[in-house]
């Protein structure tokens, strides 16, 4: 993961993801968008980038473009955002393992500790601690 050169406005890419899900292409589109941002530093707020990703996944760009322009998925994405905020998600990436929620790029040891906690294993063997 490389930090992108800028933080994109992600509303349109999130709406496009809803379209991809309806078309049975959620995983492909999600992985393509993730790679575009975190590996290639592309601006996911750019319609040109969204078009490139959509067409690369075999999505119907004219139809998707029209839905983005009309705000077809905006309420759905806003509801999902509010639900995440209500759960305590205030950053990305966010992870929920068992009853533990944590955000941001974390070292491998954090994942180990959270998994041990979720599995009910002894945490004394864990090399780092999480704040509650």
Brief summary:
The chain has 132 residues and is mainly α. It is 53% helix and 6% strand. It has 2 domains: 11-86, no CATH class; 94-125, no CATH class.
What does this structure look like?
The chain has 132 residues and is mainly alpha-helical. The chain has two domains: 76 residues, no CATH class; 32 residues, no CATH class. It contains six helices and two strands. The protein has a two-stranded antiparallel sheet. The longest helix is centred in the middle third of the chain and has 14 residues. The C terminus is likely disordered.
Helix content: 40-55%
Sheet with most strands:
2 strands, antiparallel
Low-confidence stretches: 125-132
Q: Which term fits the overall shape? A: globular
Average residue-wise pLDDT = 88
Binned strand content: 5-15%
Strand order of the largest sheet: 1-2
Structural class of the secondary structure composition?
mainly alpha
Task: Jot down its keywords.
two-stranded antiparallel sheet, mainly alpha, 53% helix, disordered C terminus
What's the SSE blueprint?
Blueprint: H1 11-22, H2 26-38, H3 47-56, H4 61-70, H5 74-87, E1 94-97, E2 100-103, H6 108-118
Helix pairs in contact: 1-2, 2-3
């Amino acid at each position: 993961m490389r930090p992108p050169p800028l933080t994109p406005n992600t509303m349109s890419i999130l709406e496009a993801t809803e379209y991809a899900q309806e078309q049975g292409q959620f995983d492909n589109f999600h992985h393509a968008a993730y790679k575009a941002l975190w590996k290639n530093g592309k601006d996911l707020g750019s319609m040109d980038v969204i078009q490139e990703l959509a067409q690369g996944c075999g999505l119907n760009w004219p139809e998707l473009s029209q839905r983005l322009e009309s705000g077809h998925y905006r309420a759905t994405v806003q509801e999902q955002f509010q639900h995440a905020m209500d759960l305590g998600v205030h950053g990305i990436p966010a992870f929920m393992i068992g009853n533990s929620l944590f955000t941001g790029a974390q070292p491998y040891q954090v994942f180990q500790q959270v998994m041990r906690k979720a599995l009910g294993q002894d945490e004394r063997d864990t090399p780092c601690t999480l704040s509650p």
